[in-house]
Amino acid sequence: MIREMDTPPILMGHLAGGVFTQILLDHGFGASGVAINSAPTEGVKRVPLSQIKATFPVLRNPANRHKAVGFTPEQWHYAFTNTFSEEESLALYERYHIPASGRVFWGSALANIHPGHDDPWVNYHNPDRAPLLFISGGEDHLMPPSLQRSNAKHYVAPGLITEVKEYEGYAHLLPAQKGWEEIADYALEWAVENARQ
């Protein structure tokens, strides 16, 4: 679909969508990209303790790799909505929570143990990649700011535009948090200003 477009689009994604954004940019698609609280790509070896705790409900059992796994409301609150009130967190849980494929979590966890470009792999040395912004929630337990900074630092080709913008007080579910509109405006402005023609 992107190939058929008259002009390259701006690409934006959250969590796994942030990985897809990086992969698409690496393959020459998109005028610019924004990865919001992105999962890491292969080669990012930082594993913060909060991330281990947040993903433990899925990673504690290898059989979860082949099935959908859900979170309890308490696990959801820690991983996704830790800066929200318990009432807001529960309302968001009831609205958005669905068991998700364990393969996504396991693929990310095993990417550095069994590298082979099957999982979230990008060429960090690709000088033709379009500009990329990482947006990070400062209080994100699932994909913390240190992970976003580490992912961004892997892009080393000369001339690449790769930036990180951190928002203090924001959790992983940043797009549902009060004030998200300001962050969305910043992301769009950055993407438009840095877009390749």
Description:
The protein is α/β, with parallel strands linked by helices. It has seven helices and six strands; from the N terminus they run E-H-E-H-E-H-H-E-H-E-H-E-H. Strand 5, helix 6 (145-153) and strand 6 form a beta-alpha-beta unit. Helix 2 (49-59) runs antiparallel to helix 3. The chain is globular.
Sheet with the most strands: spatial strand order? 1-2-5-6
Main pleated-sheet profile = 4 strands, parallel
Globally, the shape reads globular
Q: Mind telling me the C-alpha Rg?
A: 17 Å
The number of distinct β-strands equals 6
Total of helices: 7
Q: What is the CA-CA span between the terminal residues? A: 18 Å
- Structural class from helices and strands? alpha/beta
Average pLDDT works out at: 91
Oligomer: single chain
Low-confidence segments, given as residue ranges, are: none
Order of helices and strands: EHEHEHHEHEHEH
Strand content: 5-15%
Work out the helicity level: 25-40%
SSE layout and pairing:
Blueprint: E1 10-14, H1 16-26, E2 32-36, H2 49-59, E3 68-69, H3 73-79, H4 86-96, E4 100-101, H5 102-110, E5 132-137, H6 145-153, E6 162-167, H7 180-194
Parallel strand pairs: 1-2, 2-5, 5-6
Antiparallel strand pairs: 3-4
Helix pairs in contact: 2-3
